[in-house]
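In this section we walk through a basic example: taking a raw amino acid sequence and producing a predicted 3D structure, encoded as discrete structure tokens. The instruction is simple. Fold the sequence below.
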Amino acid sequence: MSAIHPISNQDLQVDDIPNPDSDWDAWNRFAHTINGYDVQGGFKPCADLANGGDAKSLTELRCVLFFEAPLERHSGDMSADQLLIRELPGSIRQKVESRQLD
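The resulting token sequence is shown next.
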């Protein structure tokens, strides 16, 4: 796993968020600006959030991206969730732009 370089929701800037079409390294680095396991209370709650499709808040969206990062890395860029992975940065960007920092 990549090292965690935390950025709080309040400190998150639009420029920190990679473009949805950015390469894997860019969004993987960004995914590790939150520790989804710690925030969600462990691996299973984070997995449940990611697999449930219920992420709405900025924190939840960031946790899902965090969870998807190792899955994508281990799939060799062949993840079944490519669409989700490409949509998450855009959804996160919208939350930050509108200052919905929950």
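Looking at the output, two observations stand out. Residues 14-97 form one domain. Residues 58-75 form the longest helix (18 residues). In the next section we compare this with other chains.
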